Amino acid sequence: MVDIVRKTSPRKKLIRRIIYGLIALSVIVGTSVLLARLKPAAPEVDGGTVWRDTVKRGDMLVDVRGLGVLTPLDITWVPAVTDGRVEKRLVLPGMAVKADTVIMVLSNPATEQAAVDAQMQLKEAEAGYNSLKAQLDSQLLDQKATATQVQSDYEQAKLQADRDEQLAKMGLGSELTSSLSKSKADALATKTQIEKDRVVVLANSIKAQLAEAQAKVDQQQALYNLRHKQVEDLQVRAGIDGILQLLPVDVGQQVTAGTSLARVAQPTHLKAEIKIAETQAKDVHELQPATVDTHNGIIPGHVIRVDPSVVNGTRTVDVALDGPLPPGAVPDLSVDGTIELEHLRNVLYVGRPAFGQPDSTVTLFKVDQEGKGAVRVQVKLGHSSVNNIEILGGLEVGDVVILSDMSRWDGFDRIRLTS
User: Fold this and answer.
1) How does pLDDT run across 323-355, given as a tens digit for each residue?
2) Fold for the domain defined by 47-70+269-418
3) pTM tops 0.70, yes or no
């Protein structure tokens, strides 16, 4: 038999190729869609490098922390009372001083000369007062002597008048002589009163003149005291018992009145000045309990002042120290301060995550029960403290979450934890 070769038409071949192409295209598209729908493989994270914590329920202390320094409660700035030139510095910063310790000597020839002039003017005023007093006392004595003499003359005239009156009554003397004697006695009586009045007037006048002279003496005395004190103030004294902290002027320097020459502080009366972040300081109030860590001991204290101004994003909180100072606690020592804001009862809380502000919602990785992986969950946060933060939603007691910075895996909802 002879085989007969069948011829396929070109049209059928074309149709077959189109069908095969459509099938291949469908397979490719389907595969692409399936691949696109597949989730990316969970990345591996070394479990030993992440920080985990377990959600707990109980009491939580809300506090804030800041850095600061110890500063004296009693600080005295010693000013220059008068202009002068620094001649000597007798005490150096860090040395203990008493209130009357001379820490510096100034010089001012004009001030010293003014004191000498004031002393001479005072002596002149005192000499003038004494001279005037002697002169007036002499006048008063003369007037008293005159009054005394007139008094004596009056008494003699009165005796004579009484005798002449008796003799006239007895017929042994004339009425005229008696009248004359009486008239003379009456005149002397009037003169005696006048002289006594003159003594009183002169005494009052002397008192007024001496008061005026004394006022001049007092004025010169006050001026001398001022000039003398200005000279004494050229020897600059500490003013209080304590430690000389600062001496900002050098020998030979010219200073004017009011210039701060030194700072003296009492080292045993200290407070802590703590810098608290502006966003946290809004909840800080007076009398709140606090602790101050000097790195050589912890001192209990309480808030006594919150500075209303903001500097570099922080506010200064003054904390009074209620306990004894540990060894080495000196002014300007760097310290850590913690202030207790509130005590929350029976709340959910966990360690504070690397990122997450109070009263906000964040995402954290919650570790599964096997500890082999973690899934991202939304967590609502409440109050925060230095180490813990309140959980308002998204987690339960016993849940383990990762608190480390996981920003590298922001594009993944799951991770695998390797040991």
Assistant:
1) 998 888 888 899 999 999 988 999 999 998 988
2) Elongation Factor Tu (Ef-tu); domain 3 (2.40.30)
3) no
